[in-house]
Amino acid sequence: MDALLFTVMVGCGEAYIGAFALAIGMTEVQVGLIGPVPLLIGAILQLLTPRGVRLFNSHKHWVILCTGLQAAAFLPLMFMAWQGAGAAWLVFLAAGLYWGANLATGPAWNTWIGTVVPKPVRSRYFAQRTRIAQFGLIIGLVATGLLLRSGEGNGKAALFLLPFGVAMLARFACVFLHAGIAERRPIPTPDRRMPIRELVFGKTSASGGRLLLYMLCVQATCNVAAPFFTPFLLGELEYSYPVYAIVLVAAFMGKVLALPFLGRVSQKFGPRAVLWSGGIGIVPLAGVWALTSDPLWLVVIQIIAGFAWAAYELATFLLLFDTIPPERRTGMLTLYNLLNAVCVTGGAAVGATLLHRFGDDVQAYHLIFLISSAARLLTVPMLLWVHVPRMPKLRQLVLRPISIRPNAGPDDRPVLPSMQDSAK
Hints:
It is built from 18 helices and four strands. With 424 residues, the chain is mainly α. The protein has a single domain (2-184, 195-421), classed as MFS general substrate transporter like domains (Growth Hormone, Chain: A, Up-down Bundle). Strands 1-4 form a two-stranded antiparallel sheet. Strands 2-3 form a two-stranded antiparallel ribbon. The chain starts with a helix and ends with a strand.
């Protein structure tokens, strides 16, 4: 139930923060930075998780605190919706609290839930949990798009009061659900953080370091354009909210359909085929947005994007965590979240600078989309440098959505307790 409520919050709340920012009069460049900048703040704050767990002497209590703070992040947004106006700094502050609490929850939740769910049923349990979460995300996206239908265009900020309220209540409900789950004693010791130098220069540098560098380059080049799809759709093309929701759902459905198929491909042909398919497939995804503004074609493009991003994420996470022993994976995920946020913010800063310089019109958006695809193309030769074993030790990996991206569907992260190793 908590997975369903979490993704309802994402679909009703987080997915529409950019749309709300446009409705209260923020510039399109500011709207593009609402996601990346708070994400970086959140990635830095997650480093406090081990200290927080030690302070509370409980993973559970730390998760409950962060969950409550994430729910409370919607209060300033609801206040601005009620007023029909708001300052940009307050939106950034609310988004920063949201992402800080979101990422700070992850490491402690992974450790805690791994002690609660019995090992023999983990894979099946987390796979079913992910399917429920996917259903909640669709419901949240579509229901909110239909609700906002009467508020097409800017100036209808008050309409966001209800979906933001639903998002807040859904996340607060998770607090009560978490409170009812037991916690074993003594609690597991929080994993030691993995320093960057250890990943790059340590025993895993031959594969993990190279792969991580490739992943970070992909994130930087993709996010030259990625944060600006929402202002492009709603600000420049003036799509209605239901059409905007359909575009988001299309990429999500592409991912949902792709993952079971890609899992079989990985087992039959090895991870290299999946990695190259994803690495090449994501290259043109931004540039094709410069070729058409027809909603039907964009839906088709989004479904293809879902397939490509599913291949990229499945292969890269499988290979990255294949090089890391189980007791270090939480630390690895924390490090990845931080470095990923740095590259996302850096890429977005480049895109914002270009958009500001070229002028925020349709032609300027088309230009940054094409630049992003050209930059992505430069990452393809790096695939030759990445070490890919014929068959990774990890046989199964369950991903859970933690966010939604307009051009790529949900932003997924591994559920660490679900990982199965073929060799111990």
